[in-house]
Specification:
666 residues; alpha+beta; nine-stranded antiparallel sheet; globular
Length: 666
């Protein structure tokens, strides 16, 4: 439940973190559209829990895209056409500084079915809670509850500031109605209670929307007041929060709480502090939800055996309850361990010594498996446990895709930092890189200082391993862009990362001895991926891909041919490519990495120029490379080939030259 709730908020935070890196985020909307309008539509179409995405600028301009799906009452109250499912709002300035507003209503095919315009606009994004909170920090923030301007309904917003010619804030709206509906779907039976709250007792979400709104009592003049827990009228939740205040921890698991004569099973889990607020999820479930069916069976048995067990049944029932309930919980915990669900600690309370000792032993086993998964790939550990696999020495040959990454000039950077700063910085860097790799089904083989070796298609079979490796490289580049922006803001050196990706056959499995094994991959393909990472330094690139990877990755990626190379330790030439992003106007998961029209045109001109170079037309190649630098600015790869062209124009390579460049360095 916590994971699902966190995923809802994580989606909003990742979205604003991604959008601030889009080159068009700082552009103003025209009377026709905004460059990111289609991306906003696609996001809302795929994420039904969110109502709106918008951009507010420091000069008061504003652009919003909102979903009207299922909001018939809103359409009726605002006079919006019935067939409209999308709404856009643009607020801008005329030449005479007068502000105007343009509203458009679109159908399912994104065709305009109505519009309206207005002068003397009163709405100013700079006065809204989401704009003020985001303007005060460099990270994404979660607002307090406030009234949405369009729908007059309460909600919360995740927003983040961006820097552009005119600075601004991008935000994503979550209406309380949607959040309440989501929480209600998590309840497992009648009498259950769930809410999201903060450390001072403010409620941010509750399944009963009407009760939440009534307890908030917000108005237009006081639009950011939160509900208090006591105002919800839930004795169980109120007692649970009071229990939390008596403890030294912010986590409560599997505890019983007696409220008004009813025993509840209760729990509290914190949400990530990166949300900018200390938020918690609280859950109470009447014990009868679980014990009701057992009690019913006991009741029937009692009537059948009334004559025989009249004197003994109450005692037997009491004893069985004291034994069966903790054993049932322990059984479920063991099943979770077998399924490799290791997140929840095990602490089963019982007056029976053997059950307490069994609970401690099971918790020790859970902790050991969790720790074990930190040293070798968790998918491998899970496969071994779930399928009862006994590890043996040996491996299998299979086609895999390998990714090596390394920080440019890390040794030099380390010399400018204290050991504590180096440790803190590299830990944060590796966490962000590793999370991105694991989210894309990759396996992290090892860390080598600041370098990472990862691969796909083992231990879990993945037929799209080349695609996932390329997508990971692009996502890592985006994640590190935000990471380095934060370091620049703190006057810390950036971690510029180079990556090499290659697809080929390797042997993967348990290597070592019978008492010390290492799950890893071996073969020429592994070494070649490492060499490609190192070649970035000499090619002036940051993501270098081999031809086998390029052919297997898919048509949505945009590659730039970087030449034919013979890396150190190899004898055969290999065509390598620079991964630039995804093709222009890409949609879905490819959209965040879509390149501009300018990059597409530059790449086409580059391909024509490199063909002249490889055909030994060095004069023509020089004439093609030179205007590329003049038109598009500095480019290390073009500069490298222009230098080679000039050298070959003076002294041509021998007749055996086929365009390959040999390297005797890593």
């Amino acid at each position: 439940m916590v994971e699902k709730t966190q995923a809802l908020f994580d989606t909003a935070f990742r979205t604003v973190d991604t959008f601030i890196n889009f080159k068009d985020i700082g552009q103003k909307a025209s009377i026709h559209s905004h460059p990111l309008e289609s991306v906003f539509f696609k996001f809302l179409e795929q994420n039904k829990d969110f109502t709106s995405i918008f951009i507010g600028f420091e000069d008061g301009d504003f652009f919003l895209v909102s979903s009207l799906h299922g909001r018939n009452e809103l359409k009726k109250s605002l006079g919006i056409p019935e067939n409209a499912v999308w709404y856009t709002q643009t607020i801008a300035h005329q030449a005479d500084k007068q502000r105007y507003e343009l509203r458009k209503y679109l159908d399912t095919g994104f065709v305009t079915v109505g519009s309206s315009a207005e002068l003397h606009v009163q709405y100013d994004p700079r006065r809204r809670p989401w704009f003020r909170s985001a303007s005060e920090t460099d990270i994404a923030t979660l607002s307090d509850i406030y009234i949405f301007s369009l729908s007059d309904e309460p909600g919360i917003t995740v927003s983040r500031r961006f820097d552009a010619t005119v600075k601004g804030v991008v935000g994503v709206d979550l209406s309380l109605a949607n959040v309440s509906h989501f929480l209600k779907s998590q309840l497992i039976g009648p009498g259950n209670e769930i809410m999201i709250f903060d450390t001072i007792g403010n409620v941010y979400a509750y399944p009963d929307l009407n009760k939440l709104i009534t307890s908030i009592g917000i108005t237009e003049s006081d639009s950011t007041k939160n509900a208090k827990i006591a105002a919800l009228g839930s004795p169980a939740l109120t007692a649970l929060v009071q229990l939390l205040q008596t403890k030294d921890t912010d986590v409560i698991h599997d505890q019983s709480l007696l409220v008004d004569g009813t025993t509840h099973l209760v729990g509290i889990e914190p949400l990530p502090k990166e949300y900018g607020k200390e938020l918690f999820i609280a859950l109470t479930v009447p014990e009868s939800t679980f014990t009701g069916p057992i009690a019913e069976v006991g009741k029937r048995t009692f009537f059948v055996s009334l004559g025989m067990l009249f004197l003994f049944l109450p005692i037997l029932y009491f004893v069985s309850k004291r034994i069966s309930r903790p054993l049932k919980i322990l059984t479920q915990k063991v099943e979770n361990i077998k399924a490799f669900k290791l997140d929840s600690p095990i602490n089963v309370q019982s007056n029976i010594l053997e059950i307490r000792e069994l609970s401690k032993a099971t918790e020790t086993m859970r902790e050991a498996l969790n720790a074990f998964g930190s040293y070798i790939p968790k998918p491998l550990v899970k496969a071994m446990i779930v399928n009862d696999i006994v590890p043996t020495l040996g491996g299998d040959r299979r086609e895999m895709t390998f990714l090596f990454s390394d920080i440019k000039d890390f040794t030099t950077i380390s010399e400018t930092l204290t050991p504590e700063q180096v440790t803190s910085s590299i830990t944060s860097y590796l966490e962000k890189m590793s999370w991105t790799i694991l989210q894309n089904k990759g396996t992290i083989d090892k860390y080598i200082g600041d370098s990472i070796m990862a691969f796909w298609n083992a231990p879990v079979i993945n037929t799209e391993h080349a695609f996932h490796a390329c997508l990971t490289a692009l996502q890592c580049r985006n994640v590190l862009s935000v990471f380095n922006q934060h370091r620049r803001n703190n006057n810390e050196p950036e971690f510029l990362t180079r990556m090499g990706v290659h697809t080929g056959e390797a042997v993967v499995g348990n290597i070592g001895s019978s008492d010390r094994m290492d799950y890893t991959a071996m073969g020429a393909s592994v070494n070649l991926a490492s060499r490609l990472e190192g070649l970035n330094k000499y090619m002036g690139t940051d993501i270098l891909i081999s031809r086998p990877t390029m052919l297997a990755a898919g048509d949505e990626f945009l590659f730039r041919f970087a030449g034919k190379v013979v890396p150190k330790g190899t004898t055969d030439g290999l065509c390598v490519y620079e991964l630039l992003g995804t093709k222009i106007n890409a949609t879905g998961m490819y959209a965040p990495f879509s390149v501009s029209e300018e990059i597409m045109q530059k790449t086409e001109k580059w391909e024509a120029a490199i063909r002249l170079f490889l055909s030994r037309d060095f004069a023509g190649a020089k004439a093609a490379f030179t205007p590329l630098l003049e038109e598009y600015g500095a480019d290390p790869l073009i500069e490298k080939y222009l230098k080679l062209t000039q050298e070959f124009s003076i002294q041509s390579p021998d007749d055996s030259w086929n365009g390959e460049q040999s390297f005797d360095v890593k």
